[in-house]
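Backbones bend. Shown next:

***
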Amino acid sequence: MLNLPNLLTLARIAAVPIVVWLLRNPSGNTAFVAFGVYFVATITDFFDGYLARRYGQTTALGKLLDPLADKLLVVSALVMLALMDRQPSIPDWLLVIIIGRELAVTGLRSIAASEGIVLGAEATGKLKMILQSIGIHALILHYSYFGVNFHLVGLITLLASTVVGLWSAVEYHMKVFRELGTKGLSDG
C-alpha cells in the first residue's frame, strides 16, 4: 500500500500545512518559499499518477488519496490567499464558485462509485487543473516582478480555470446521469 506513488500523494498532503503556515503573513520572501513548496507539491500530482500507471502500482488507497490531496492543496491555498490582507485580493464569489464546484464533483464521484460507474479525468478537468495551478502559483507571488503583475496574471488564469472547471463539472454530471439512466433501463 505504501508504494512510491502513494508516498508522493502523502507528501502532497503533508505540504498543505506548510503552505498554509507560509501564507499566514506573506512577505516577498515567504511568498517565494510558499511558491516553491506549492510547486513541488503540484509536481508530485503528475509523478504519482505517472509512476502508478507506468509500474502498475495503482491502489485503492491511491485512488482515494490522490483527488483528496489535490482538493486539500487547492482549497487551502485559495482560502489562505483570500484571507490575506493584500490588495487587490481574490473576489469572495470566485472562491465560493471554485470550492462549490470541487464539492459538487467530489460528491458526484462518490455517487458514481457507489453505482459502479468509473469517472475518470476528462480533458477539460485536466485543463482546469493546469490553469488553476498556474493561477494559484501566480497569486501566491502576488507582487510585480520583472514588469509582470503576478496578481493580475493569477486572477485571469484562475477565472479561466473556473470557466473550464464549470464546463467540466457539467460534462461529469451529464456522463453520470447518462450512465445512471442507461443502468436504470437495463435493470428494469
User: Anything to note?
Assistant: The beta strands are 144-145, 148-149. The chain is about 80% helix and 0% strand.
